[in-house]
Amino acid sequence: MTAPAPHPSPTEPPPTCAVTTTVGVIGGKWKAVAVYHLLGGPRRFSELQRRMPGVTQRILTLQLRELEADGLVHREVYPQVPPKVEYSLTPLGRTLEPIVRAMLAWGETYRQREQDT
């Protein structure tokens, strides 16, 4: 067991918990779901939207933009008519796979527990 971190001085900002950082990046109702669907490979926007019932076009667009800004998702625009845009995970985004798969397993276990009660 490690010793507790010393208290920061009043002039220093408090350290951010790593869980807070993670939730800040993939938190929100749809980000982890989008990452999950991108684990299978590149997807077009409409395909992601079909796989995510209940998400609005506006919210999905915002969530994908945030994931892109954080370096987790790559947006590829193909120069053709009509325009074709695909989303894929970056190498950094792929590092989320064990986290998202753990969330999937936990959710399945929880859902089964709820059904059994």
TrEMBL record:
Molecular functions per Gene Ontology: DNA binding
Q: Which UniProt keywords apply?
A: DNA-binding, Transcription, Transcription regulation
PANTHER family for this protein? TRANSCRIPTIONAL REGULATOR (PTHR33204:SF29), TRANSCRIPTIONAL REGULATOR, MARR FAMILY (PTHR33204)
Record organism? Deinococcus soli (ex Cha et al. 2016)
List, alphabetically, the InterPro entries matched.
HTH_HxlR, WH-like_DNA-bd_sf, WH_DNA-bd_sf
Under PROSITE patterns, the record lists: HTH_HXLR
Q: What is this protein called?
A: HTH hxlR-type domain-containing protein
HTH hxlR-type domain: from which residue to which, for each copy? 17-115
**Entry keyword DNA-binding:** yes
Q: Which Pfam families match?
A: HxlR (PF01638)
